[in-house]
Amino acid sequence: MNGTVAAVSREEEYRFSKRGRDAIRLVAGLGVEGDAHQGVTVRHRSRMARDPAQPNLRQVHLLHRELFAEVAEAGFEVLPGQLGENITTAGIDLLALSTGTLLRLGDEAVVEVTGLRNPCAQIDGFRDGLLKEVLGRDERGRVVRRAGIMSIVLVGGEVRPGDRIAAEAPAGPHHPLEPV
């Protein structure tokens, strides 16, 4: 499964949305250079409040651009970076990936998929009613999270819009993504 990088974003301050950039630099073991969520240990405020020593499995947030068209049908305009993602993708079904999938981004960078982003009420603070569009239930009543995936940086490097994304599934059985 392959795709492309549609946009890249980072934000130095803790803000819901991230500003678009011409490029971002991924740093092995840390995340996006200069981003508020960069670090070895958890950097998301709700998780830091629970246990600041837990590992940061949310170093890089990836979100599929195709979601923007889906939520537009419900009347919501969303642009790259506005839902807090670092990398907006195109042409790759992020939500169908297995835990442990490697994503090769451009010529150098490699991230390992750790799980799903767990959408929170801040999404409604951005656009009232948007949370129900990215967090729903399937026909069996199971929660469906559509607000992207999280990853850790294995190999650093620069990532730019237009870069190729190549997905490499891990050996063994498929492990559906769970929230991290």
What would a concise description of this structure say?
With 180 residues, the chain is mainly beta.
Q: If you had to describe this structure to a student in words, what would you say it looks like?
A:
Pfam families: MOSC. GO terms for molecular function: catalytic activity; molybdenum ion binding; pyridoxal phosphate binding. Residues 14-168 form the MOSC domain. The protein has 180 residues and is mainly β. It has a single domain (2-168), classed as Beta Barrel (M1 Pyruvate Kinase, Domain 3), CATH 2.40.33.20. Helix content is 12%, strand content 33%. It is built from four helices and 13 strands. It has a seven-stranded mixed β-barrel. The chain has a three-stranded antiparallel sheet with strand order 4-3-12, with no helix packed on it. The longest helix is centred in the middle third of the chain and has 7 residues, at 66-72. The chain is globular and about 35 Å long. The two termini are 23 Å apart. The mean pLDDT is 95.
What is Rg? 15 Å
**Strand arrangement in the largest pleated sheet:** 1-6-5-11-8-7-13
Mean pLDDT reading: 95
CATH superfamily: PK beta-barrel domain-like
Reading off the top of the CATH hierarchy, the class is best stated as Mainly Beta
Number of strands: 13
CATH hierarchy: architecture: Beta Barrel
The ordered H/E elements are: EEEEHEHEEEHHEEEEE
Q: Distance N terminus to C terminus?
A: 23 Å
Q: Quick one: biggest sheet?
A: 7 strands, mixed, barrel
Which topology does CATH recognise?
A: M1 Pyruvate Kinase, Domain 3
Give the overall silhouette: globular
Strand content: 25-35%
Percentage of helical residues?
10-25%
Q: What are the segments in which pLDDT stays under 50 over at least 5 consecutive residues?
A: none
Individual helix count: 4
Q: Label the structural class.
A: mainly beta
Number of domains: 1
Protein name: MOSC domain-containing protein
Pfam family, one: MOSC
GO molecular function: catalytic activity; molybdenum ion binding; pyridoxal phosphate binding
Domain MOSC: 14-168
